[in-house]
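Technical annex B. To support the medicinal chemistry partners, we prepared a structural model of the target in complex with alpha-L-arabinofuranose, based solely on the information shown next.
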Amino acid sequence: MGRCIYTGLYDPSNPLSDPTTGFRKDVMAAMKELRVPVVRYPGGNFVATYHWLDGVGPKEQRPKRPELAWLGVESNEFGTDEFMRWCEEVGTEPYLCLNFGTGTLDEALGWLEYCNGTQDTYYANLRRKNGRQEPYNVKYWALGNECYGPWQVAQLTKEDYAKKAYQWAKALKLLDPSITLILCGETGFSSWDYYVLKECVKWDVHGLSGDKTKSLIDMHSIHLYTASEEHLKNATAPRAAERAIQMAMSFIDLARIENKVPPTVPRQTICFDEWNVWDPVRAPGEQGAEERYTLSDALAVSVFLNAFIRQAASVGMANIAQSVNVISPLLTTPSGLVKQTTWWPLLLFSKYMRGHTVAVNVRCPEYTGPTKPEWIRGTIETPFLDCSACISDDGWVSLAIVNVNEERDYEVDLQGVAKGDVEVHVVTGEQVHVVNTEEEQKVGIEESRWNGEGSFVFKKHSLTILRWKA
Ligand code: AHR
């Protein structure tokens, strides 16, 4: 889609790229800095007409195909082996999405065999012939993408999807029982989510029968993009993500109860495999969806991230969409990278918000105006101070506080902070509409220290992460 792969992370003619692989070295360095644990490929909506066999083997023999999701052309110069190599160089885990549009089950099984096969079989041998002896051991596989949407090539009803996903899942797990299969949910709060979970969260399936530690489906995918030109609507919109996780998790539990899934089968988790700030009218997909992010958007991203930390017991994976250029915190230019406002909260969370979630209870004033979607205010709180906390394995406590109020600071008497030496990391800017450009970085990270005594002032329109050794 757009400039994500071509002229994004893969650009053989650019001097900033590795001359052997064509991978942009500066993009790889940024991904490593972010310690990205998993990357999903090849789509998105794109996958609904993607045939993986077009993208393997000698490059000069790979066919160019019309691409129907964004009405582009796919050259297939970058395919499975290139993606796997890129993941290995970046140090990230691949996650593949299967074509539920024009693809067949045979093709999906072939792809799984190509990636993970160890026997003397056709597609495993094709991989070897293409230069890769060892299997890639791809763990994560998605059963289609947004199959419910009228924008899909070969949109499905929930009944048709559930039937198809169940059959594909069974066959895929017969071929490789070690994989993690991800069901295509919708928003997390729709009848599609309830229905497909009810039909597919099963364990006593032929081929898996009798093993009370295995299930057909391991995760449930949901997506959410939010955006508003009004700052408080924009910064509180990701509260919908938290409610979505809670609701989808209830549907998972309901399916487990109704289908009598034994407690020994691990509880399925949410795979929030597309989330971000995106307004498709402002940045249309067919034109590459290159959003220019403001400080307000960076605060919205921080609220999304806080929700994932708070709901970490339910969230098995969450993926910001996308990695480069398309709805992304990173923009490539022919001569370098622009780190957008949204890059900075992502980097801070990646560096520090690791380990185990710590419950935080906050009493503070709330935003009471209109929200987008409207139902947020009716179903979940919208505090001006949005918080999460965690403790790392080596005993560092990190507290993330987003002050979404653009008009006032909050002075807070924090309980439980260690006295002495507290690290302070702040992301803010002059006002909520500032953006970072190639010429000027108006939003970044300010670092300082605090002695942990008295109260702390959380500045207006800011993200603050406080860290101390427990
Ligand atoms: O990430 C952009 C698009 O948004 C994806 O292709 C699709 O899955 C979603 O609607």
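Notes passed to the chemistry partners:
Residues 162 and 196 are 5 Å apart (CA to CA).
The chain has two domains: 25-353, 374-469.
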